[in-house]
Amino acid sequence: MAHQAGGRRPAPRPVPDRSEAQAYLQDYAALMEAVPFPSFVVDHRWDVLLANSAFRSLFGGVGPQPTAMPEENFLRFVLFHPEAPAVLGEHEPSWCLPMLAHFAAALERFGHDPVLQGVRRDIAQDPIMEAAYRHGLPHWIRAVGEEAVEHDGAVRPLLHPDPRWGATDCRVVVEAPGTLRDLGCTRLTLVLRDARRGPSRERRARRAASHLRVVRASG
To answer: Is the pLDDT of residue 204 over 50?
Structure first.
């Protein structure tokens, strides 16, 4: 506001030093633990830095996979874990394709990052996923619109292992408070919704039909 009114642009916030950052993240983890919904913090690589008990409960039943566990890197879990569709409902259109779009944006911004480069190599080794990334993804974004790519506010299906939830939906809430943003991190919370608030069968059918069946999970 000061800049718009002719004043000076505010000075950039100082990045916390290592000890301050660790203390902040410890306190932030305590805050997240008080949230009843799955919540986790990722960096630009989608490495999971913090996750609460509700997150671990949601994904606790997935089997081991050397490079794609949900508590290690959420991007790799969505794209490569063979059991991801058992938790992430309508896996391809609701989770995999949006994550591929976010990965493409991250790779454009952080092209030399070795972790992102590793994800790109693994995509290239899967012909179906490579075709989706190079050719299907642009077509899908044009077909469904940019809003389908955005995580914040999206309502996406989940298959919760807790029978009290079962097949339900969650609203993805993305937050980046100032200090978290200075650390290059973002928090995502999956706000579970009562099944009675979920989309109708007709809306589910339309949503499931509006995608390309060219992406599969790979081990």
So the answer is: no
Task: Write the pLDDT tens digit of every residue in 87-107.
Answer: 999 999 999 999 999 999 999
Number of structural domains in the chain: 1
> Is residue 219 in a domain?
no
85 Cβ contact list (under 8 Å, min separation 6): 91, 217
Is residue 7 in some structural domain? no
CATH of the domain at 142: 3.30.450.180
pTM: 0.82
